[in-house]
Design a protein that fits this description.
- The protein has 587 residues and is mainly beta.
- It contains one helix and 43 strands.
- The strands form 14 sheets. It has a four-stranded mixed β-sheet, with no helix packed on it. A four-stranded parallel β-sheet has the order 26-29-31-33, with no helix packed on it.
- A hairpin with a 7-residue loop joins strand 9 and strand 10.
């Protein structure tokens, strides 16, 4: 802008100078070196910055401003995440110069009305007459709610009136229609009086009685008005007869055919209104008038009869009876009966009793038969024959029960007896026969001792032992049958049975003699026995078992080779003392 000056200095004196004008230099600017952006760069285009000359502001110089990648041109923002009542949102804008450049974002402030409500839920249901309410809740915050009123629904009548109070012949009624929404809501209207709507008592009262020839009439009354009535015919009553009566007692008069105990009777009457009307009734058979007292028939001392309850009425001479049962033989007259423990009788035979003695099975106590189980007083008596009732429940013949009855000739022991006691028939010197029952299991010692007239006897299978002196001095006994199961024959059992001609010892016997110094003599004095065989396995354990035997008699010992063998086998050492019989040993 301005010409310059150039100065030259004096060599001699520097203060001496000379100048000359230096022409303007268009390029000799004095730059401020302060570039100012005159055209801004952006995200797609470089800009320009300008520096100004100090001499002349019109003199400028420029330089490029590099592209500014952040200098976008954002114009229209669009919401991409809406703000809610609880959270800010986001809105974005694209660069107008280049759509590929990043979008601008900015926060959208919380919108207090931007709720996310669901569906309404009924809080209080509306009714026909009352409004309800419904509410919806924001899913962002359960305290944000919106409530609406639900208008009252009004009634929804069924338009189907039903009679709730029927009209009657005297009063109007009521019919009611109900709301379909609430059955407790109703409306009513009047039902007119119904002259036929009676409330009958359904209690017809006969006003004119019927009889066997003419119908009657009965009347029913309305509960609402007693003047309202209805009637119905009462059918002829075939039973409403006019039966004849006794003019004195006013009781009915019948023609009667009497009944008996077993046959029905009949009575008949005729109606006075119509003689074709009759009534016949059966008179039940009277039944029997049985006595409570027994009637006893055909009962004797030794044979049973019967007893029965008899009717007090007879029919054509026939006696009616019931409950017939055995009436037991009374036993020989004169027997004495003693009740024991209120359950059975002891039968006592009086002293010097003679003839036949029959022991009954039962004794009658009032109307009750009680069994006889024991007998006493029968020893040392004079009866000649002894019989027992077959039903006798006695199981035991007492010790010495019939001993020393010197006139007794025969006895049959009843089936129930299992034991004959000690010396039961001891000394019955006239007894020729006795029958023992199959169930007998025990004959005690001396039972038939001294029965000097007894000729034979069979011992039942259940007896296992012939006890001491059972048949001693049975001097007429010729034979005896012993059972197969017999195991022992005791001391003196057959002593002095001097007529005994045969006896077979069963193989089951294991001991004869009963052992010891006081045992033995079992067959002593049996001088009519020609022979006897002692089976193998038997021990003779008593002394003088065959004393008095003679040389004409034979004893066979089986299972032993000699006498020494008997001793070594435990036989009593003097078993054969005073025995002269021939003894054969068969090993």
């Amino acid at each position: 802008m301005t010409a310059g000056v150039s100065t030259d200095t004096c060599y001699y004196n520097t203060v001496h100078t000379r100048t000359q004008t230096v022409v303007i230099n268009p390029d000799a600017h004095s730059w401020k070196n302060n570039y100012q952006v005159t055209t801004a760069s952006n995200c797609t285009t470089p800009g320009v910055s300008t520096d100004t000359c100090n001499h002349n502001a019109a003199h400028t110089r420029t330089q490029t401003v590099v592209i500014n990648p952040s200098a976008h041109n954002y114009t229209t923002y669009t919401v991409t995440t809406a703000a809610t009542c609880m959270a800010t949102g986001i809105e974005t804008a694209p660069c107008t110069r280049d759509a590929n450049h990043d979008k601008a974002t900015r926060t959208v402030v919380i919108n207090p009305n931007a709720h996310n409500y669901g569906s309404f839920s009924v809080v209080t249901a509306a009714t026909c007459t009352t409004a309800g309410s419904q509410r919806k809740t924001c899913s962002y915050n359960s305290t944000h709610n919106e409530t609406q009123t639900i208008a009252a629904l009004g009634h929804n009548w069924n338009n189907n009136y039903q009679v709730t109070t029927p009209s009657t012949c005297m009063a109007t009624g009521i019919e009611t229609d109900r709301c379909a929404r609430d059955n407790s809501h109703s409306r009513t209207q009047t039902v007119a009086i119904n002259p036929n709507a009676h409330s009958w008592k359904n209690n017809y009262v006969v006003t004119t009685a019927s009889n066997c020839t003419t119908p009657g009439e009965s009347t029913d009354t309305c509960n609402n008005n007693a003047a309202h009535t209805r009637t119905q015919s009462v059918a002829i009553n075939p039973d409403a007869h006019n039966w004849p009566r006794n003019i004195l007692t006013n009781s009915f008069v019948w023609d009667v055919t009497p009944a008996t105990c077993t046959e029905t009777g009949m009575r008949r009457r005729v109606c006075r209104r119509d003689n074709s009307h009759t009534e016949t009734e059966t008179i039940n058979a009277l039944g029997h008038d049985y006595s409570t007292t027994w009637s006893y028939m055909l009962v004797f001392e030794t044979s049973n009869g019967f007893r029965e309850h008899r009717c007090s009425r007879t029919e054509n001479g026939t006696v009616h009876s019931k409950d017939r049962e055995t009436a037991y033989a009374t036993g020989t007259s004169g027997l004495i009966f003693l009740l024991v423990d209120d359950s059975y009788y002891q039968c006592t035979v009086p002293y010097n009793f003679s003839g036949t003695l029959h022991i009954p099975a039962y004794h009658l106590d009032g109307d009750i038969y009680r069994p006889i189980k024991t007998i006493s007083g029968a020893s040392n008596n004079d009866f000649t024959r002894l019989t027992f009732a077959s039903e006798l429940q006695m199981t035991y013949i007492n010790s010495f029960g019939f001993s020393n009855n010197r006139n007794l000739t025969s006895v049959t022991i009843p089936a129930g007896v299992t034991t004959i006691g000690e010396s039961a028939f001891y000394g019955c010197t006239s007894l020729t026969s006795i029958t023992l029952p199959a169930g007998l299991t025990s004959i005690e010692q001396g039972a038939f001792y001294g029965c000097t007239s007894l000729t034979s006897i069979t011992i039942p299978a259940g007896v296992t032992s012939i006890k001491a002196i059972t048949f001693q001095d049975c001097t007429s006994l010729t034979s005896i049958t012993l059972p197969a199961g017999l195991t022992s024959i005791d001391r003196f059992a057959f002593r002095d049975c001097n007529k005994l001609t045969s006896i077979t010892i069963p193989a089951s016997v294991r001991e004869i003699g009963e052992g010891g110094l006081y045992g033995g003599f079992t067959f002593a004095g049996c001088t009519s026995l020609t022979s006897i065989t002692i089976p193998a396995g038997v021990k003779l354990t008593g002394v003088q078992m065959f004393s008095g035997w003679t040389a004409s008699q034979t004893i066979t010992i089986r299972g032993k080779a000699n006498r020494a063998a008997t001793i070594s086998d435990g036989w009593y050492s003097s078993w054969d003392y005073l025995c002269n019989a021939t003894i054969n040993y068969v090993p």
